[in-house]
From TrEMBL:
Native source species: Micromonospora reichwaldensis
Major location (coarse): membrane
Record key words, sorted: Cell membrane, Membrane, Sugar transport, Transmembrane, Transmembrane helix, Transport
Membrane topology designation: Multi-pass membrane protein
Domain of life of the organism encoding this protein: Bacteria
Leader sequence residues: none
InterPro entries (UniProt xref): MalF_N, MetI-like, MetI-like_sf, TM_PBP2_N
Transmembrane segments: 42-62, 68-87, 96-114, 316-339, 351-371, 401-426, 447-467, 513-535
Bias (Polar residues): 1-13
Keyword Zinc-finger: no
Every ABC transmembrane type-1 domain range: 316-534
Gene3D superfamilies from the UniProt entry: MalF N-terminal region-like, MetI-like
Entry protein name: Maltose/maltodextrin transport system permease protein
Function: Part of the ABC transporter complex MalEFGK involved in maltose/maltodextrin import. Probably responsible for the translocation of the substrate across the membrane.
Amino acid sequence: MSTPSSGPGTATQPPGRGPVRSGSPRTSRTARNHAPITLTGMLVKVVLLGLVAGIAVWAAFPLIEAELWVGLAILLATTAGLFYLYLTPRHIPVKYLLPGTLFLVAFQIIPVLYTASTAFTNFGDGHRGSKDDAIVAIQSGSVTQVPGSVQYPLTVATKGDPATGTLVFLVTDPQTNTVSVGDTEGLRPLDAGSVTVAPGGKVTAADGYQILNFGEASTRSKDITDLVVPTSGGALRSSGLSRAYEGKAVRAYDAGCDCIRDSETGKTWTADGKVGSFVAADGETLAQGWQVNVGLRNFADVLTDPAISGPFFSTLIWNFAFALGSTGFTFLLGMGIALALHSPRMRGTNFYRVLLILPYAMPSFAMLLVWRDMFNTDFGLINNLFGLGVDWFGETWSARLAVLLVQLWLGYPYMFLVTTGALQAIPRELTEATSVDGASPFQSFRAVTMPLLLVAISPLLIASFAYNFNNFNAIQFVTEGGPFPADNPTAGATDLLITYTYRLAFGAQGAEYGLAAAVSIFIFAIVATVSAISFSRTRKQEEVYS
């Protein structure tokens, strides 16, 4: 049988290969790497890049207005990079990795960096803005009515919803009959064609503003009274709901001494840049200050200030006990139930499994509120069912026991599910072999089942510990951190560090975001350290039983 000769122009082919396609190898590789783009794909790309361009333009104007040139440069560079990347056929892997990376930066890295930067400032109530903002607020807040103060017809309005919108004053100048709108930024004239003015000068309608009726204004009377509109001659304040007056500031800033002077009493408050406040010679500090960098002061306060360090360390000890107890008790109960249902002699296991995971299927926040009522001293189910008279949330240890019991009920179904899956992955031959060697069921469990079980679910136990260490809902919805000692309403007996931090940031004594951010960094460091040590030991255990 003759074979074809391989002369010039004849393509030879190694055995086992498919037919050779025409064209150079380079052309073939290009064709394979760059498949033709469909019309739908092109439309999606155009729409997404159009959104990117729109967002960039929208974000550019505030940056330009605030003269944040570095941020504008980053915005322009990022936008140009995205257009280059997705309009060229190169860098295929980067096209898929970049969206996830950007979301990671936007929703993880930036918030963490912002929290860390806040921890080195005094940011909080009274220290939110700049020094100039503080001076304006101090001067405006000291405005009082003096003889001869100009009176204006007043209409109270909002931008948006009457109940929650930003309040503004609509006032008519009694001399020129011009209408102006005033807020915390000052007075601005309005176009005469955009307002309707009744005889007497009261504004009855204004484009873009919602006029408040008497009932709506009454519900926001405190906000109306507190609103101060800076003017060139002093500030504008309300006198009732229909009149406003332009008063004079009793306290004024003196640039020569960098201080605030009170014209009535003569008292002086000098600016202290270290704390961001105006402080008098007798130590009195004006409530309105400004944001400054305080270095490590917040961290030092957490560790050394008795008013903060005492509650912090006592809360930290209970926090560890709560996280370990919640994780350990739920694991033991879940594992015990899983072992019982894993027995081949057990019947109706599917039915029992459905019943046991019911707590896991219910909304946790709703169940926490139900449990709080169940522990009520007077009408709660727990006391009535067992004939008890325990004030569960009134004593330290009973409140702590209550939250641990609630966590046990809510958490054991999860541990039951993961333990059941891990048990099913352990070959029965291993336990049967130990039985043949004469080991008891307990010895078999301790020598074979438990080590292999821990290898499988140790990462989940670590994750559960980290979650329970910051389990805000479990405390806030059940005990709200209480009971509280009579001398300290900030840190309660069942508070975790996360609820203690929340109370620092949003407590009735005033928000202290800088201090709360410092505590948050401590929490992060603690959880990260414990997790790293636990994962290290888990890897060693895996090496032993692998």
